[in-house]
Amino acid sequence: MSRPQEARQSFFPFGNPFRMLSPKSSQLSPSLLALLNCFEDTLAVRLRKLEALGDVLSLTWMKSSMESLCETHKEIQDLIAALNLPVKDWDEKWIDIYLDISIKLLDISNAFSSEISRINHGHLLIQCALHNLESNSLEQFVRAGSSLDSWRQQIRSKNARLEKCFCFLDGLEESLNLPKVKNSAKGKVLMRAMYGAKVQTLFICSVFVAALSGSSQKLLDLDVPDTHLWAQDFNRLRGNVNVTLRNRVSANSGNLLKELQGINTVVNKLYPLTQGDSVSTDEDSSRVSIRQLRTEAEKLSGGLNLLSNEVDSFFQIVLTGRDALLSSLRATCTGTDPTVGKRVGLPVM
């Protein structure tokens, strides 16, 4: 199957979501309108829940946002099943575009997993430092300084895989400007629902990249028109999150994640105490700091594990949809089942 050669590929196979706003294209049956309104109402509720959580730059918020994104992608699968749109009716170019975008989503998921693994390695350095700090040996206490210093160096370094996501976000945002194409009533419903899922995906991914890379340059500044039932909730959430992220970056506060900042605060107190031979492990201040470091390390470990699970779930949703599409195409080409594709649950991208 050949790839389209255009410099900018459109994202959705069903065209521009704003074409639904014209009188001619707004005539939907009650059943189709109910499906669309149900999707948009549910998306609005998800966005309000994320806003209510607060602590945008915490692993808890990131885990919840990825979980919300997974739910939206699963709902798109359910919507496709309810609309009963057979894959065999999709244009070849649309399918190529879908496969291309799904690969990019898999890449960005892998980039997030890579950064989580890198932070987990840093957590092992903290565990090693704690082992030495909690001993009764002055020599081991001093030795902990090496692990603490390694942590500081690693956490300041950059992940090249995350930086590659900047171009991906650019392409994803550009794909919101779609060419006009003729489409069916069912296609219009799915296309408009996909627009909502696409915006949420782009927003969440941009927040992840900013929080993990420490750069706010690719944050999404899109204002969604009020014609979408979820628009006000999205615009409010996006505005508040972006302000928080940009303020943190402009303050030159280093790591943006709350849990990493918590560890760094304690490490900066402890590291000077591990230098030299005059260190006393009996000092109350050092013992308090050691307990604080263990508490912060446990928060980091627990948060990373939960976030990693959600990122893996997102990866699997995209991969499963991609595999389902390819399987349906193979079956359609062989002509083994004339209904193939009707039950395929394809995720957003």
Automatic annotation (TrEMBL):
InterPro entries: ROH1-like. It comes from the Eukaryota. Pfam families: ROH1-like. Its main location: membrane. One of its GO terms (cellular component) is membrane. It is a single-pass membrane protein. It is found in: Membrane. The keyword Transmembrane applies. Keywords: Membrane, Transmembrane, Transmembrane helix. Belongs to the ROH1 family. This is BPS1-like protein.
